[in-house]
Amino acid sequence: MDRQRIRGEIVAWFGDQARALAWREPGTSPWGVLVSEVMSQQTPVARVEPAWREWLERWPTPADLAAADPAEVLRAWGSLGYPRRALRLVAAATAIAALGNEVPDDESVLLGLPGIGRYTAAAVLAFAFRRRAVVLDTNIRRVLARLVGGQEFPPRSETAAERALAEEWLPEDDDAAAAWCEAVMELGALVCTARTPTCGACPVADDCAWLRAGSPAWEGPERRGQAWAGTDRQCRGRIMGALRRSETGVALADITWPDDVQLQRCGAGLVADGLAHHDGDLLRLGPGPAVSA
Q1: What does the pLDDT look like over 266-283, one tens digit per residue?
Q2: Pick the catalytic residue: 37, 152, 182, 186?
Q3: Active site residue 37
Q4: Burial class of residue 262 (count of CB atoms within 10 Å of its CB; 0-12, 13-18, 19+)
Q5: Nearest Cα residue to 240 out of 87, 68, 79, 47
Q6: Would you place residue 288 in the very low, low, confident or very high pLDDT band (cuts 50, 70, 90)?
């Protein structure tokens, strides 16, 4: 495969087709990029953008967020899902504030921040600082699996072989590497999608090993979407929604849910995760004064 040509065609496609996302606007701070990456994990971009804009207006620097009331942070997180990410972002902001209130441009330092994993550290390095880093999310993994590996999907969990392949395809130049990462990620998000890829719109369809093989169906373990109805996730979301709407606290008995045992278990889980605390017979949003002080 002519990697240089293929990379160039995908980057050129990105220049024409990239979404005008808020955090791609000129002048976006590295903090803004970090917030966007944390918010976008497992959450559609359409839901992230308005929350991201509000977040940056309220807490434009890490120190601003570090000083915020955790309950207000969780309210601002709204319906983005997986609200523990909001508390992890507060923890990261607190650590960054102690480092001088500037997001570090060193991958090892980024990895040392609370709640920042390998993907997020690499994405911040690439997209905020235009530095060479192996950014490997679900979209990039899927594009490389099809384009190079001839497989409909990548393995369920990231492998060392995938990282080695991503490293092979990553340009040596810092800015070119960052451009490649954002372009191939966008291709996976818009064209080389999981369920209904639009191969006719792909700029490198003629090079795709999966298409040349006749688009063989996935032969690995069955890939099932996450269930929602009746799950603990839905129950926890129901409780969190009630807590966000209340300034005075909520009794679990007042929340409509068909399984009281599950409701009580999920309420206890939220307390254990620091997302809620007991105030007498009520639950209130946030970790509570003793934890947040």
Answers
A1: 999 999 999 999 999 999
A2: 37
A3: yes
A4: middle
A5: 79
A6: confident
